[in-house]
Amino acid sequence: MEINEEEIIRNSPYPTPEGAMRYYMGEVAAYKQNQEFFSQQGFTLPIAEKVFSIAQLPHWDTYQLFAEAKKIPDKGTYLEIGGFVGGSLVCVYLATQLSGCAVDLISIDSFFDKLPNAEDGI
Description:
- Helices cover 55% and strands 10% of the residues.
- The protein is mostly helical.
- α2 (17-33) packs antiparallel against α4.
């Protein structure tokens, strides 16, 4: 997969492009240490690279989300996701494409709602 540095930098919470790329490359390297296991589960390197490029999810968290999304029933279901929204949705989408199942409704538990100063309705 071709690395889209602009997308990685744009989606990163790191203040510098170097920090964003270092995080991305670190997650890809960590994935590769367990690549055989991940690939056997359907969580291939191209899928991981796509998720890492748009979300700040560690490789094991990304795999767990992917594995849970693959369990979605064939007829569709309700799926609740917490944490980083972009990466979660990509994992769900990729898992549904791989498994051929559907998701009817996704509920996002916003990270920002948990902050002490969060206002209602954010």
